Amino acid sequence: MNPWLVLILLILVAGYLLDCLVSLLNLRALSPELPQEFRGVFDDTEYARSQSYTRVRTKFSLVSSTASTICTLAFLLLGGFNFVDIFVRSFDFGPVTTGLIFTGVLMLLTSLLGLPFSIYSTFVIEERFGFNRTTLSTFVLDMCKAALLAVILGGPILALILWFFEKTGDNAWLFCWLAVVLFSILVQFLAPVLIFPLFNKFFPLEEGELKKRIMAYAEKERFQIQGVFTMDGSKRSTKLNAFFTGFGRFRKIVFYDTLIEKLTTEEIVAVLAHEMGHFKCRHILKMLAASILQTGIMFYLLSLLLNNSEMFAALGMEHVSVYASLFFFGFLYTPVNTVVSILFHYLSRKHEYEADAYAVASTGDAESLVSGLKSLSQANLSNLTPHPVTVFLEYTHPPVLQRIEAIRKL
């Protein structure tokens, strides 16, 4: 058996087994005893419900991962990539257009495979636990809008990447790196104006005590914002969230309407202070710089494996191409991506602690941040006792009990 095929199969199977191990460890870590910190927040019935939610979602993730792995292995071993390649080549377009069609077909197949799981997750699991408010029409419209955005935004950048690798020789990875970085930054500016409104409606926060407190805090911290908005998050789910969007004087504070309904004014200001802490501590710029570096490394490694005839032969391909190389590289890059993700998650968790510390220092109100975190955990049925391995590999935020402990130490 071709060593490239063996390597790719090992990577796929190892990744699947790691997912299974993490999921099983997380299930075993569930504790039937409500943590002391949350007594008075959860009652016994509600806590049992939160654990049931974690079990159901974890088991569902295992089923989804199993189906995805089996289909991917079958597609590889049965020559699925070659079949699609022969099909798209029959249109007799140039390499860039052929690559776009090849990518489009594979994305369509992937979407069709994931569709039943997405439907079940939204309309069965989330419905069962009282989260879902997505209607069938909203679900379908979201899919259509996402597909249209993939074509409008993803198509041109993919075409540019293919063209660079086809035409610019050994330095193609540098041009690709620069193009993707510039495109990503552009999207960050355009998203609040052109993309977000496609999926949700944004309304200026009504005049009142909450808005006065928010604006007073922002002025005290010399934090320039364009406005404070609420978003119709309840259109899809009852879960709570808040975020900043935009840059410089175009920054906006956005609260889900569900969060406004559930949290007190003090808790909302504490959540805002935490989000502001990410800006003040330059976390966004640091993560952006790390992401840019990661993208450059990825494109450089891709350039080393581009058009590898032995790898194409291993996967039963009759023709060597740049566009198929992108997909095959994706399999080989998985272990590297896992290591990079662990590093990014570690930095993200560290940043959460720092943002909490900023919130406490700038408001002088640790208890409102603690109670806000508790309210968020209760409303979202968060897992209070995740396994340390799961946290290490997958969590971008520290477990809520560890965050509260760190806040109390402040």
Please provide a written account of the structure:
It is found in: Endoplasmic reticulum membrane. Zn(2+) binds at residues 274, 278, 352. This protein folds into 2 domains: 3-129 and 280-409, no CATH class; 202-262, Metalloproteases ("zincins"), catalytic domain (Zincin-like). A hairpin with a 6-residue loop joins strand 3 (242-245) and strand 4. A 4-stranded mixed beta sheet has the order 1-2-4-3. The chain is globular and about 65 Å long. The protein has helices at residues 3-28, 44-77, 80-89, 95-128, 136-167, 172-199, 209-220, 257-262, 265-280, 283-305, 309-314, 322-363, 366-380, 388-394, 400-409; strands at 202-204, 227-231, 242-245, 252-256. It has 410 residues and is mainly α. The N and C termini lie far apart (59 Å).
- Total number of β-strand segments? 4
| Number of helical regions | 15
Structural class: mainly alpha
- Spell out the helices and strands N to C: HHHHHHEHEEEHHHHHHHH
Average pLDDT metric: 91
Distance between the termini: 59 Å
Low-confidence stretches: none
Major sheet details: 4 strands, mixed
Radius of gyration, in Å, reads 23 Å
Beta-strand portion reads under 5%
Identify the strand order in the major beta sheet.
1-2-4-3
**Percent helix:** over 70%
Count structural domains.
2
Q: How would you sum up the global shape?
A: globular
Oligomeric state, counting identical vs distinct chains: single chain
